[in-house]
Write a structure and sequence with these properties.
Organism: Stylosanthes scabra
InterPro entries: Kelch-typ_b-propeller, Kelch_repeat-containing
Protein name: Kelch repeat-containing protein
Largest sheet: 5 strands, antiparallel
Number of strands: 32
Structural class: mainly beta
Pfam families: Kelch_KLHDC2_KLHL20_DRC7 (PF24681)
CATH topology: Neuraminidase
Number of helices: 4
CATH architecture: 6 Propeller
Bound molecules: 2-acetamido-2-deoxy-beta-D-glucopyranose
Shape: globular
Radius of gyration: 20 Å
Number of domains: 1
Strand content: 35-45%
Distance between the termini: 37 Å
Helix content: under 10%
Keywords: Signal
Length: 426
């Protein structure tokens, strides 16, 4: 399935393709996330060196992962019947190396965490510690003192990952998401945190539960669209909005809005210059293994894309230039600086031969004047679900799941590392 076909994916094709891909999916069912989360696996099968403050994985042993071909160059070449070695980092785009400074790590490591910046305060929410443990609290970093300064407990009934989040500059809105660890169900509950009083309140529930819907506050309305449907895999197209002010709903029910042309979870949703942008994402996601009492995650066919959609006064979706590469898991990996959107890391399409997941290590710039993209720099490593902030000339990011080392872009360790670099945009 070439990437170029996906734009013309009709619903019927999707159904047919899904049937086909389920067969394919069986071959892909590998508990990749568990492997990448397992601390014992890391401890017993790797040698670490520290280079420029970045722990670099020099050797690693893939033997714990089965069901798909292993990731080494030799094996790729063998499978391809060729002596030529494919670079394992085939998907990286050349970009300037940036100098990154290590800052205090987050109190806990996080995958699929969320973040909201309000002035100098950076609120980091929920997320997985590992596949069997999820967080239910907010950690707060102060960009002025460069310290983790606070912890706020979340409502116990609030989702733990795959949220939709937005802010009005004082309150943080949290809509739907996955409740619990592994690949458990999604819920439709919505909440608001008043960051001044540190009190949570409830909002009217979304009409349906969603996984990681694109969410943003625009013209006084909380917009929620796309995401994954109740089975965690099927892309949703529905789009709803709710009038809100100061953390309170001004309406009893969500209003139906124009559906998004392409659905799925893990996209960046951004309001800039009074326009709403939806960037990147994917169709499909891990699903609970049928009959598993713990809703054990199993891998399914996914298509990652770099599509960019925009809504303006006309309230019709406009298709803009796509990202330089397909990119997903970037919900909170962005900031707006000097009429640009900056996006850090993510996941891209799987490796064409090994079918391995491939992380993204580039920093992208979307120019809001020309509506075009550039690749402007590199992160200290490839990483997905980063939480990104900007303060006083510094670009910050923390948390996510990083790669296995410079030569291996597959996901491994879940981290809470915090980094910053001086940003200088053109
Ligand atoms: C790597 O895997 C091989 C084969 O599964 C095993 O024999 C070897 O001991 C492993 N090496 C390390 C360092 O774990
Ligand atoms: C497979 O081998 C061919 C012939 O050597 C080469 O051109 C191609 O790039 C290889 N593709 C992959 C995915 O390894
Ligand atoms: C943003 O623009 C201002 C004014 O031109 C400039 O001084 C500043 O360095 C720019 N910021 C970045 C991060 O490039």
């Amino acid at each position: 399935m070439s990437r170029f076909h996906h734009k013309h994916f009709s619903a019927t094709k999707l159904v047919l393709f899904f049937c086909f891909s389920t067969v394919l999916g069986v071959a892909l069912v590998a508990n990749l996330i568990r492997e990448s989360f397992s601390p014992s696996h890391i401890a017993t099968s790797s040698n670490w060196v520290v280079r420029d403050h970045v722990p670099v994985l020099l050797f690693q042993n893939d033997s714990a992962i089965d069901a798909v071909p292993k990731g080494g160059n030799a094996e790729i070449a063998k499978k391809n019947g060729s002596k030529d070695l494919l670079p394992a980092t085939f998907a990286d785009i050349p970009a300037p190396n940036w100098h990154w400074e290590a800052m205090p790590s987050a109190p806990v490591p996080r995958l699929d965490g969320y973040a909201i910046q309000i002035k100098n305060m950076f609120y980091v929410l929920q997320g997985y510690r590992n596949l069997d443990h999820v967080h239910s609290h907010v950690d707060v970093y102060d960009f002025i003192t460069n310290k983790w300064v606070d912890r706020i407990e979340s409502p116990k009934e609030m989702a733990n990952s795959h949220l939709g989040v937005a802010t009005d500059g004082r309150c943080i809105y949290v809509v739907s998401g996955q409740y619990g660890p592994q690949c458990r169900g999604s819920i439709n509950l919505a909440f608001a945190l008043d960051t001044k009083t540190k009190q949570w309140s409830s909002l009217p529930p979304l009409p349906l539960p969603r996984y990681a819907p694109a969410t943003q506050l625009w013209r006084g309305r909380l917009h929620v669209m796309g995401g994954g449907k109740e089975n965690r895999h099927t892309p949703a197209l529905e789009h709803w909005s709710l009038a809100v002010k100061d953390g309170k709903a001004l309406e009893k029910e969500w209003r139906t809005e124009i559906p998004i042309p392409r659905g799925g979870p893990h996209r960046a949703c951004i309001v800039a210059n009074d326009r709403l942008f939806v960037i990147g994402g994917q169709e499909g996601d891990f699903m609970p293994k049928p009959g598993s009492p713990i809703f054990k995650c199993s891998r399914r066919h996914e298509v990652v894309y770099g599509d960019v959609y925009m809504l303006d006064d006309e309230m019709k979706w406009k298709v803009l230039q796509p990202m330089p590469k397909p990119d997903s898991h970037i919900e909170c990996a962005w900031v707006i600086v000097n009429n640009s959107i900056i996006i850090t890391g993510g996941t891209t399409e799987k490796h064409p031969v090994t079918k391995r997941m491939i992380l993204v290590g580039e920093v992208f710039q979307f120019h809001l004047d020309t509506l075009t993209w550039s690749v402007i720099g590199k992160l200290p490593y490839r990483i997905k679900t980063t939480l990104t902030g900007y303060w006083d000339g510094w670009l910050y990011f923390t948390s996510g799941q990083r790669d296995r080392g410079p030569d291996n872009p597959q996901p491994r360790q879940v981290v809470g590392d915090m980094w910053r670099t001086k940003l200088s945009l053109k």
